[in-house]
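Example for reference:
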Amino acid sequence: MFSPLRWALVAWLALIPSLALAEAPTVAVASSLQFAFPELVERFRAQGGPPVRVNYGASGNFRRQIAQGAPFELFLSADEQSVLALHEADFTEDAGEIYAVGRLAWIQRSGREPLPAGEAPLAAVEAAIAAYRAGEERPRVALANPEHAPYGVAARQALTHAGLWEDSEALRVMGESVAQAAQFALADEARGGLVALSLALAPAVAERSEYVPIPADWHAPLTQRMALVTGAGESARALYEWLQGEEAGSILERFGFQTPDAADGH
């Protein structure tokens, strides 16, 4: 899937001179990519691609907006279902492609409390619950809203796996997206939060925080799919094809994502 020899990528390379003058496509991008995607766009443009207008947010919200006619040309979701549902309703050209598999992490401000060990990554949530029950404090635990954010769904599943979902109800604060959840997790009143590993690895976040990955089997796979919205222009198609190449895959891997081939063990 990610071979640089695929015919579509070769065709795109032939279009570089004309695409450089094309209108910038508008792209809907899951907020788990908020730090990775600017680098992807930078490399795309360095190879002759046009400018890109990017909107970050929760995948469920983008799914609704596209169904209501929002003028996006390419949608990079943090899950598969948002894209597949749009395809079934004829809002995307096809079922698209899996471009990455994400990971969940516990994140907290540096130097405030001991970082949980890898074998008990949600020990900080247990400690927060105990402190609240003892009347000592009410430390917040941040996550994205599971109603429309795939990483919020994964966070709920991880807390449920650890037997902490119900007990943490009074402490939970939910972000509109996983990027907002990361902001909440590092606030003064927060103990920490469950966010995308890609956000925890971003330099702007890593310089003031620390993290521990959540075991992948504590939640359903965070398989991320993208697709061209029906009527997308050539510039969006060029970006879509480039994102399936090896250079894009290497950038995503540096931000904690697995590419589809790596996730399959190839």
About this structure: Confidence is low (pLDDT under 50) at residues 1-21. Strands lie at 26-30, 53-57, 74-76, 97-102, 104-109, 140-144, 172-175, 190-196, 209-213, 222-228. Residues 150-161 form the longest helix (12 residues). The chain has 13 helices and ten strands.
